Structures are given as C-alpha cells and as structure tokens.
Amino acid sequence: MKLNWGTGIVIAFIGFISFIMYFVINMNTDKKLDHDLVTEDYYKQELKYQNDIDKEKNAKTLSANLKWRKTEKGMLISFPENLEPSNISGKVFLYRPSNKQLDFETTISLSNHNLLIPDKRLLDGRWNIKIDWNYKGNNYLYKEEILY
User: Fold this and answer.
1) 82 C-beta neighbours (distance < 10 Å), count
2) Angle at CA 132, nearest 5°, toward 131 and 138?
3) CA 33 to chain CA mean position, Å
4) What span, in angstroms and rounded, lies between the C-alpha atoms of 72 and 46?
5) Are residues 91 and 114 in the same domain?
6) Residue from 90, 94, 91 nearest 127 by CA
7) What is the rounded CA–CA span in Å between residue 32 and residue 98?
C-alpha cells in the first residue's frame, strides 16, 4: 500500500497532537510535579512587606545578627550575646519549598542565647527560615535560604 503526501501530513499531525496531549495529561496528573504557592494569602502578605523591610533594617543595626548551625541534636539558632534572652520573643517559621506538609512554625522561648530545633523535625535539603522576633519593643527579622 502506498501513502500519498496528504495522508502523511495527517498522520504527522495526529502523531504530534498525541505527543503534546500525552505530556499535558502527564504533567497535570503527576503528584511529584505538584508545587504549591509559598502562602495561601499571598496578596495580603505582600501588603505587609514594608514592615518586613523595616524589621530587616533593624536587624542590620545589631552588633551581631542571628547565626545557625547544624548539630547532632538539630538546628541550633544563636541570638546575639549582648541581648537579655528573657526579653526575646517571636516566632521561627521553616518553609520547605518541595513539600508543604513539612512546613512548621515554633515560638521562641529562651533560657540562654540558643534555640534548638530538633533534628527529627528537619529533613536534609533546602529550607527557607524566617525568624520574626522582638526585643524590648524593637522588631527584627532574619530570613535565609539554607541547606540543612
């Protein structure tokens, strides 16, 4: 059986459309390719962004900023030594870009200058850490993308 050029073009179009439809359906149904927004109320957060900028500027005026390091027990966040730990309050938010279910938030309660986040709460990989804290009426913000 001999095919003419018109039949060949139709077969090529059908093959191309099938190829594209396969990828469209595959991308929409594959759960490992499902990515969520950083936050559900994105626009509301955007309106508060100037407050975050002011808090970050306040943090840069400190003699020493926050530091973190990985230890055997977990992530150890160190607050500046010249501040009184009992006057520090706030929240630590850890965001995992690859999995929304791993995100968590914890309050800051210090007896010394260190805060420990247990290793069992953190998987190895990329995290975004956001520490929104207050010391004697001054608000500070520390944000960083980390590899744990």
Assistant:
1) 9
2) 135
3) 17
4) 37
5) yes
6) 94
7) 9
Please count the structural domains in the chain: 2
The residues near 92 (Cβ < 8 Å, ≥ 6 apart) are 77, 105, 106, 107, 108, 115, 117, 129, 130, 131
Apex 145 CA angle, 139 and 148, nearest 5 = 115
**Residue 39: strand, helix, or coil:** coil
* pLDDT reported for residue 34: 65
- Residue 116 has φ and ψ, to the nearest 5°, of -110, 125
* Burial class for 110, CB neighbours closer than 10 Å (0-12, 13-18, 19+): middle
Least confident range from 11-15, 97-101, 114-118: namely 97-101
- Domain of residue 47: give its range: 42-147
pLDDT band at 96 (very low <50, low <70, confident <90, very high): confident
Residue 123 is which amino acid?
L
79, 87 contact by CB (below 8 A): no
| Rounded distance between C-alpha atoms, residue 9 and residue 109, angstroms | 70
Could you tell me if 58 and 4 lie in one domain?
A: no
Structure-block tokens of residue 117: 């986040």
Please state the length of the chain.
Answer: 148
CATH number at residue 103: 2.60.40.10
What pTM, to 2 d.p., does this model score? Answer: 0.65
> 105 pairs with which residues across the strands?
93
